[in-house]
Amino acid sequence: MLDYAMVVGTSAKRVRMRFSAPLVERFLKLQWWLYERAPLENRVDSSNAEATLDYFEEQLAEGSQERLMPDTYSINPGANDYHLETLPAPLY
Predict the structure, then answer these.
(1) Alpha-carbon gap, residue 72 to 38, rounded angstroms
(2) Alpha-carbon distance 17 to 90, whole Å?
(3) What is the DSSP letter of 47?
């Protein structure tokens, strides 16, 4: 399936694209999933895709967008329980 396609059914048939091709290109170029969005959520109307992209592209260009660095763990089975190990960096 194409990025940002809306699909239905068990055999996944595309109904339409959620955004226009230029907006999809901007979303993919931005790689928004790599950045911390929570602190900025109240500063932009995320229901307006173009305005949201404008805002995040501007933040990224200014260097004020923080890279998302979630805590990452490895869970390994032991003899009677599981061992939780904190990994030094995200897996991506």
Answers:
(1) 18
(2) 31
(3) T
Asked if residue 49 lies in contact with residue 28, where contact means CB atoms within 8 angstroms, the answer is no
pLDDT band at residue 68 under the 50/70/90 scheme? confident
What is the distance between the alpha carbons of residues 82 and 57, in angstroms, rounded to a whole number?
A: 42
Residue identified by tokens 């595309």 is 14
Sign of CA dihedral 10, 14, 18, 19: positive
pTM: 0.71
Which of 26, 16, 44 is closest to 6 using CA atoms? Answer: 16
25 neighbors 14 (Cβ within 8 angstroms): no
